[in-house]
User: What shape does this take?
Amino acid sequence: MKVYLLGAANPEAVRMILTLQRSQPHVQFAFLDNDPAKQGTLFYGVPVVGGTDKVPELKGPDARFVNLITGSTALRYRTTCEIVEAGGTLGNFIHPGVDLTMITMGVGTYLQEGVIMQAQVSLGDNTSISAGSVVGHEGQIGHSVFMAPGVCIAGCVEIGDGTFIGTNATILPRLRIGRWVTIGAGAVVTKDVPDYAVVVGNPARTIKTNPASFQDGRVFK
Assistant: This one.
């Protein structure tokens, strides 16, 4: 099995590779990156073999692709769509310490060390959750969502496709967060948030609206 990780930016991904290879030594890892300056180099010892334009050449029955881009959910969505449209098969990149009991999960998932998900959480495709984040019971996380480190989502919360949740943000129980929302670092969300809103503060308030560039975050149409 070969796993290609898009985005040679965070050395934490290399640490996860080293951890995974202790129990899965047969799996080979490499990076993809669309920055030409990184292509053909080593990222903390792991080769960067090209960009998304290499997917048609690299794809195959034993190849899986996972997008590690986290700074923009729109960019993450677009580049994952490029992989899928080029015929690449999405895989998952999950720290072995994450407990997936009673969790429903799509493909293209990136879960870092220390992520906690309670019973009956569902994750859509192409979703990334960073270190130390918590998703409460029966949470419904859409496609192409990103959570920065230390996010706390209480029980029975629905997160719409393409939403970006900043570091240490908190979302109170039984709320609905719309599609392509941006929640600022440290925000405390106490009420439902409409599609495309940008919210910050405690309690969180809307300060502007994101462009309605996408209707949803599905990478499989």
Q: What stands out?
A: The first strand starts at residue 2 and ends at 6. The helical segments are 11-23, 55-58, 73-85. Residues 136 and 155 are 4 Å apart (CA to CA).
